[in-house]
Specification:
InterPro entries: COV1-like (IPR007462). 47% of the residues lie in helices and 13% in strands. It is of the alpha+beta class. Strands 4-3-2-1-5 form a 5-stranded antiparallel sheet, covered by helices on one side.
Length: 228
Amino acid sequence: MTEIPVKISFATRLRNSFLTGVLILAPVTITMWLVWTFLQWVDSWVKPYIPARYDPEQYFDVAIPGFGLLVAVIGITLIGFLGNNLIGKWIVGVGESVLNHMPFVRPIYKSIKQLFESVLKEHSSSFKKVGLIEFPSPGTWAMVFVASDATGEMAYRFNEIGQEMVAVFLPPTPVPTAGFLLFVPKDKIIMLDMSPEDGAKLLISGGLVAPDFTPKTAVEPVPDQSSS
């Protein structure tokens, strides 16, 4: 029996074309707006401190977006370079010693420094792995970002009950900026091969944008022994 093709009305085609255009333009437009807003924000902080003779806008009479960001990146890199030599380390040590002796400033500085060290240091394993845990009930699985093994008092308390626990971050969909810090037994986590970036895409899209996956080891077929 020949199937009769379904005719699509002009209004439906027009709506589909509009939605396709939104899907194409919205991510590009929002990304460009965020980048432009970030550049303007950095420039508004950095440019007032740049001497006029070093500002190219004084010579070309044209606003150069991102020049403040470029200066900030170069300045931060130079500070990091100086901080790696002996004189720089001594200066940093003196500055930290002063901050550590200030009653109200010390806890704030130590907390912020510990946070940045745990995130930015090369040896840090924070949120470099993605896993699955049973949540909120057995048989239901949720994707988490693995932070690190339990440390400090948390590790001590877990060792008392004979449990090796891992700290994981369970973000909601589609906004991963908030979530839950959970301590899960290490043997209860199914580790995934996907990167945290791919995990974030999967999370934000509500499961619609799944990363490509190729098993590391393919299952070899069982040879047919009936003919032997």
